Amino acid sequence: MAQAGVTKDDVQTATDHVVGLHDVTFSVLDGEIFVIMGLSGSGKSTAIRTVNRLHDVTAGTVTVDGTDVARLAKRDLENFRRDKMGMVFQHFALFPHHTVVDNVAYGLKVKGMATGERRRRALEALELVGLERYCLSLPRELSGGMQQRVGLARALAANLDILLMDEAFSALDPLIRRQMQDELLAMQGDLLHKTILFITHDLNEALRVGDRVCIMKDGAVVQIGTPEEILRNPETAYVAEFVKDVDQGRVLQVESAMSKPSPVVLGTTVREALATLDSTGVAFCVDDEGKPCGIITRDLLAGSQQRSVEAVMMTEFGVTTRTALLVEAYELCAQSELVAVVDDRGILEGRLYALDVLAELGEIESKAEQVKAADIAEGKA
To answer: Are both 15 and 64 inside the same structural domain?
Structure first.
C-alpha cells in the first residue's frame, strides 16, 4: 500500500499497521556527523535502528562498508554489532551496581579482553570525557550529564569506526546539553574522527553538530543538506517552519555576510580616500602587507585638514575570521562600525558591516516565509 502511494495514516486506518519508514535513502560519509532530525513519530529512531538491525527492514538494503546488514545470519550479526559500531542511548543504559570504570569496560569484557587491558582502555575513554576522577563511583553518584558522558565513554572505549547516538543528549538540561554538544564537537575535531549517526528532535542541535542533516516526517525523508543549505533553502513549508525558530547566528559563518573590503593603503591622501569610498562611507586602511590598521569614514575625512589617512583613521576596530560563527561577531559589530575579516596571516580579506549581518538574517527569514506561502498556495501545507 505504501509503495502504491497510500499515506502512512491511511495504511494504519486500513490495516492497523504503522509504516515506520518508506522510500528512505541516505548515505553517510566516512568521518562525518550525519544527523537525522524529526519530531516524534517521524521515523528517525527507526532509521538508526535499522543500521545495527535492532529493527529489520521489510524491503530495501542497509549497507555498511559493503555489508548488507539485513542479510547477516545471527552469529554474523552479533559479531558485526560488537566489532563495527557502538551505540549511545538517550537514557544512559548504565548498570547501577557497577562502578563507572566497569560500565565503560563492559563491552570490552564481552569481547573477552583481558582485565588489565580493558581497564586501561576504559580509563583512557573516561579521560577523553573528563571523568577519570569518578572511575570508582557508582552511576547514582553522578549527575545526568556525567552519566551521559559515561555512556559516551563506553562507546569510545570500544574504539569502533561508527557511533550511533539516539537522542543521546535529549534527556539533559539545556546548559548541560550544550556542554555535551561542545565536547562532542571538540573530541570529533581533535581526536575521534568517527563516523557518527546522530538522532535528535531539535533542529538547533541538528544544525549545530551536523556536517549534514536529514529531516524526516511521517517515515519519509523531507530534505538532506548541510546546515547552511537547510537554513538558506528550505524545500518545504515543514522545513521552513523549523527554520523560523533556529538561532541562525549559531549556524551561519561570517563569510556568509561579509563583503569585499575595498581598503585604502596607508599614505593615501584624504582627497584620494574620499573619492574611493563606497555608499557605506566607511573603509579600512591597510599597511603594505594588507593588514588592517584603522578605519576611515566620510565624515572624518570631509572635516579633516590633515593630508594623509593615517592621521585621521580610527585605530580601534573588531577583528574576526571568515569561518567564525556570526553569533561570535555580534558584539564586535555593536562596538565598531566595521569589523575586519582576516586570514590566518592577519591580512584583510573582507569586512563585516552591522547592516549586512541584519540583511543576511532577514533574507533567510524571508526565504522561509516564501517557501511556506508557495506550499500553501499549492495545497501542500
So the answer is: yes
